[in-house]
Amino acid sequence: MKKVIVFSIIFLNVLLGCSDENSDVNLDALEAPTNISALMTVKQDNSGKVTITPKGEGVTRFEVFYGDGTVEPAYVVPGNSVTHNYLEGVYQVKIVGSTVNGKRTEAIQELTVSFLPPTNLNVTLTTGTNLSVNVSATANLETYFQVYFGDVTNEVPVSFMEGEVVNHVYAVSGTYLVRVVALSGGVATTEYTENVSVTNLLPAPTPPWPSTNVISMFSDSYTNVPVDTWRTSWSQANLEDISISGNATKKYTSLNFVGIEATTSPINATAMTYFHTDIWSSDFTQFKVKLVDFGANAVFGGGDDVEHEITINSPAQNTWVSLDLPLSSFTGLTTRAHIAQLIYVGAPSGTTTVYVDNVYFYNLGAPPTTPTAAAPTPTLPAGNVISMFSNAYTNVPVDTWRTSWSAATLTDVQVAGNDTKKYTSLNFVGVETVASQINASSMTHFHVDVWTPNMTAFRIKLVDFGANGAYQGAPNDDTEHELTFTPTQSGWNSYDIPLSDFTGLLNRSHIAQLIFSGNPSGAGTVYIDNVYFHN
């Protein structure tokens, strides 16, 4: 175990003489340093040579007390390191950070120097919904750790101490082999490897139906009916309740099958015509939905149970899949007045991770023709984004959101107080940044949120004008590519598209045109928000 003890000490110390020209600087207002610690690495040659790199915020100078009886400290400028030879043993190293006005903060950090290989290595890996993974580790006899995240060739590891948490953000969704190495002062090391799957999840689409048409089991958009459990005792899956940008979501891991029960208050869905659920997975190849009605006696196995299971083969991965299943397709479900069980089954069996949201029954009614909820608020840090249009970021200059050669009508509207572009009578519309062309060469994705009441196809084209910066200039080095999507109607569709999917877009440093088009040609209505590139 490593222990860190932190003290803040304020003492009077005349380090600087103040001249008349800087006498208006209030040095006393400076706060004491914070977050004092050190990275301590040891050479793997039985020499006991340790490199100590102090860290902290608001520090002018560090003092390092080695903890081995050496009286005089080493003085270290922030960003630099100091080396010291130790015998085998456990030492209490004191790091002192000071400011120009004499305020000091101390941290005592335990250092283990051993020439034996580390033992009892225990690694904790936790993944988020934003392509991130957190790594921490404990061991005996180790001095420090190194972690390899497995996403680049010739990777340089990140070194860290016990008690630290290292965060890493991947460029794209996928499964990566993470390797953690525990190092001591000897040649031998101890390693741990684990495959981690990371995702870049946005909230599921907002349901379009009025609450009067819905019996909701789980959705932030409605008042939910009572559900006894979202994981029965006989299930073969793990359940975690998570939040995606503030939106409650169910996460099932190691999914073979999971039972969801409403036996205390069975659902009467006789007036409903559809069952809906939103699902997201990076690895499933098949998904099954089973509904079970316990019959009039409302008892499982009471003699009048009915059920039916529907299989969805090869569902799309790494995107929300909105399943709208006609209840008439559940042919074995001959009654719907006492629905008490919902069962999800995933494949590959026992290894699948599936996120679930918006589980409800509904009847068709008339879907809304305009959005009532704003598009999901982006959560990426501004430093990772080149935004063309979003209230969440500072936008780059855009010449026009409707060129003169467009076949569409543009209206700037607000949806729930959020600025939004509305295109009607849409055949195609050009958006241009010719005057200040976008250099997206360091970006990995293009994002746009789309809401439509009637479009059956939606197309996105990116055009790069090349090094000469002119449309079909000499030489003609323009490149472009168009992708087609099938949007869910009357709900927000969040398209987070790898730029690598735009295979014809050979260059990304002079992007000057974005073109939206779709079907029905000349009659489409679409609302657009959160248009940006990101890495």
Give your account of this protein's structure.
The two termini are 37 Å apart. A hairpin with a 6-residue loop joins β14 (174-183) and β15. 36% of the residues are buried. The strands form six sheets. Strands 16, 17, 18, 19, 20, 21, 22, 23 and 24 form a nine-stranded antiparallel β-sheet that branches. 0% of the residues lie in helices and 49% in strands. The model is unreliable at 3-23 (pLDDT under 50). The chain is globular and about 85 Å long. The protein has strands at residues 4-10, 34-42, 49-57, 61-65, 74-76, 82-85, 89-98, 103-113, 119-127, 132-140, 144-148, 158-160, 166-169, 174-183, 190-198, 214-218, 236-244, 247-261, 274-280, 286-293, 306-313, 321-326, 339-347, 352-362, 385-389, 407-415, 418-432, 445-451, 457-464, 479-485, 492-498, 511-519, 524-534. The chain is built from no helices and 33 strands. It is an all-beta fold.
What is the helix fraction of residues, given as a range?
under 10%
Low-confidence parts lasting 5 or more residues at pLDDT below 50? 3-23
Mean of residue pLDDT?
A: 91
SS field, number of helical segments = 0
List how many beta strands DSSP finds: 33
Major sheet, described briefly?
9 strands, antiparallel
> Looking at the structure, what is the overall shape?
globular
Radius of gyration, whole Å: 30 Å
The N- and C-terminal alpha carbons lie at a distance of 37 Å
β-strand percent reads over 45%
Structural class by helix and strand composition: mainly beta
